[in-house]
Amino acid sequence: MMIGGLAALSGAIAVMAGARGAHGAVGEAAEWLRTGSHYQMVHAVAALVVMGMPGGRWPAALFVVGAALFSGSLYAMAYGVPAKAIWFVTPLGGLVLIVGWLWLAVAMLRG
């Protein structure tokens, strides 16, 4: 159940980041927080939904890890970390999310 706990924590972080983006940040930082929050929340919910399905454990884990990398890098940039320092983390997180969705697709197609 660790994946479920991490997914729930991820959802809470998404709400906090979204609130900061809506009520405290401006410009590009606000957009990064909103984008990160959106992706993180979608994947937190997806992880909670699929984790109990046959073949869903790994996709759920990939959703949690991918969202942490993708959204976390956007949050870091919103709080001042130079994009040059973490340029590779955002696309890596996106790739992990894509792999999670593809893994889920294969698991679902196989029944």
Descriptive labels:
111 residues, mainly alpha, 5 helices
Notes on the protein architecture:
This protein starts with a helix and ends with a helix. The protein has 111 residues and is mainly alpha-helical. Helix 1 packs parallel to helix 3 (57-78), helix 2 (27-50) runs antiparallel to helix 3 and helix 3 runs antiparallel to helix 5. The relative contact order is 0.16. It contains five helices and no strands. The mean pLDDT is 97.
Quaternary structure of the protein: single chain
Number of strands: 0
Low-pLDDT residue spans: none
Fraction in beta strands: under 5%
List the helices and strands and how they pair.
Elements lengths: L1 H22 L3 H24 L6 H22 L4 H4 L2 H22 L1
Helix pairs in contact: 1-2, 1-3, 2-3, 3-5
